[in-house]
Write a structure and sequence with these properties.
This protein has helices at about 5-40, 45-50, 70-110, 125-130, 145-155, 190-205, 205-210, 225-230, 250-260, 285-295, 310-320, 340-350, 395-400, 420-425, 440-450; strands spanning about 55-60, 65, 135, 140, 240-245, 270-275, 300, 325-330, 330-335, 355-360, 370, 375-380, 385-390, 405-410, 415-420, 455-465. It is about 40% helix and about 15% strand. The chain is built from 15 helices and 16 strands. With about 475 residues, it is of the alpha/beta class. Strand 3 (about 135) and strand 4 form a beta hairpin. The protein is elongated and about 145 Å long.
Length: about 475
């Protein structure tokens, strides 16, 4: 038999071995688990990582995930953010749908409108033959009596306001009736390419084409049918048309002037005032003075230094003598029937400030891009004091008896509008401290709104086109 002392020693040794084995097993197991976690091989833990992200903070001895519960405030914040994002997306979707609706309505109105006969150049000759028209200086001689016709043919009489329909002197001419002109630059000579590039650099539109379009080019009468039948007061006030320019292209500036003279009843235009805001282009010096001297009712006023649009307009207004002031850009074309509705609204109430519908001349092709009065907008602004456009409000649609009635607008774009000279002075005119351009349209709009609550009118029955 083993001595008692040896048995005790063997038992202790067995206990030590067992403890060492247990420690070894536990150490190897935990190290394996940590290795699995480190290299992503523990599927159980990885699944919780995927579900909870950074909320998995630790593992206890049983290898179960310890989850940090989400903060209720954070959940509410995230829910509010999601709701705001959904509302913003819905708002943008509604705005886009409204734009599409207005565009579709505009197209439908245009498609339903009678197309001017000379818009299709291929049909011009047949139309001309059917009317037996003889064209001299842009005048249809079949519309006048024999004695007047003979005077016109001899060049002794140049009629200005006796045309029911506008007829081009050269119906196949470049850009006539608002048709766009496409120039392939690669087909131009080196000299022509330089002229092409210089025009864009100086004006930011295609001057090369403008210089090849007649100063008296014909435009289609695109007024809505309701506008053409409107009757205006027999006695309307005269207007001083004020046009500000600085280094404007020759043909664009003069086409603006001639469109005013050619498409306005002569007795309603008292004067056209060209205000030169210190231009330095050669063609706007002696050459312009000599050209203007031959035009009836046109005056040229020059600033002694660069003043900017606001003070240049004040200079023009200071020498104007008519009851109504009409401010125009120097790169636009007035269409048929543009003047009477503006003057009629001011004759109705001298506190009415009237802005026309403004169509677009394509800056590359000079194509006349017009729209129906039914799809117009009203002016607004944001809190950065930037002007913007808005659909006509429902309350305005309900207030008006016809879709072509003038619409009240909180603000105006400012480039083209008419105002009583007396009322302009009553408002305090423009702020002469404003430089160059920008902001004067909102400032004047606010003055009008604060004066008896009268707001701007957008007149539906006349169109301008502007580059």
């Amino acid at each position: 038999m083993m001595p008692k002392k040896q048995k005790s020693l063997l038992l202790k040794l067995s206990v030590v071995v067992a403890l060492l084995w247990l420690a070894f097993v536990l150490f190897i197991g935990n190290d394996s688990a940590l290795s699995d976690d480190r290299y992503g091989r523990n599927e159980h833990v990885q699944s919780h990582h995927a579900s909870w992200g950074n909320d998995l903070h630790a593992l206890d001895g049983s290898r179960q995930p310890v989850i940090a519960r989400p903060d209720p405030d954070r959940l509410r914040f995230e829910a509010a953010m999601r709701k705001d994002a959904e509302e913003e997306a819905k708002r943008r979707e509604n705005e886009e749908l409204e734009k599409q609706r207005l565009e579709e309505e505009r197209r439908r109105r245009i498609q339903g409108r009678a197309v001017p006969p000379f818009m299709n150049m291929q049909n011009f000759e047949s139309v001309k033959k059917s009317t037996n028209a003889t064209i001299v200086n842009g005048v249809d001689l079949s519309a006048v009596d024999d004695s007047t016709r003979r005077l016109i043919e001899k060049g002794l009489l140049v009629p200005k306001w006796n045309l029911e329909k506008e007829v081009a002197a050269n119906p196949n001419g470049t850009g006539e009736f608002g048709v766009g002109v496409i120039i392939v630059k690669e087909n131009l000579s080196a000299i022509e390419r330089k002229e092409f590039d210089d025009g864009w650099q100086h004006n930011a539109f295609n001057q090369y084409i403008s210089d090849r379009v007649s100063l008296h080019r014909a435009l289609p009468d695109v007024r809505d049918a309701e506008c053409k039948t409107r009757q205006y007061r027999e006695k309307l006030p005269q207007a001083s048309v004020i046009i500000i320019f600085h280094n404007e292209a020759w043909t664009v500036l003069l086409r603006t002037v001639h469109s005013v003279l050619d498409r306005s009843p002569p007795h309603l235009i008292k004067e056209v005032i060209l205000v030169d805001d210190f231009s330095d282009f050669d063609h706007l010096k002696t050459r312009l003075e000599e050209y203007v001297a031959k035009l009836e009712k046109v005056r040229l006023v020059r600033g002694k230094k660069r003043e900017g649009l606001i003070r240049a307009r004040l200079l023009g207004a200071s020498v104007a003598s008519a009851e109504v002031l009409i401010f125009l850009d120097s790169h636009c074309e007035c269409t048929k029937g543009w003047l009477e509705p503006m003057l009629d609204r001011i004759a109705e109430n001298r506190s009415n400030v009237v802005a026309p519908i403004i169509d677009v001349l394509d800056d590359e092709t000079l194509k006349y891009q017009y729209s129906s009065a039914y799809s117009t907008s009203v002016g607004g602004f944001d809190w950065n004091l930037q002007f913007n456009w808005h659909p006509v409000p429902d309350r305005e649609k309900k207030r008006r008896k016809s879709m072509v009635d003038p619409v009240w607008s909180p603000t105006m774009a400012g480039g083209l509008f008419g105002i009583s000279r007396e009322y302009f002075e009553y408002l305090g005119t423009y702020d002469p401290g404003m430089d160059i351009w920008g902001g004067e349209n909102l400032e004047l709009s606010f003055r009008v709104s604060l004066s008896f609550g009268i707001s701007f009118d957008v007149v539906y029955v006349n169109n301008f086109v502007t580059v």
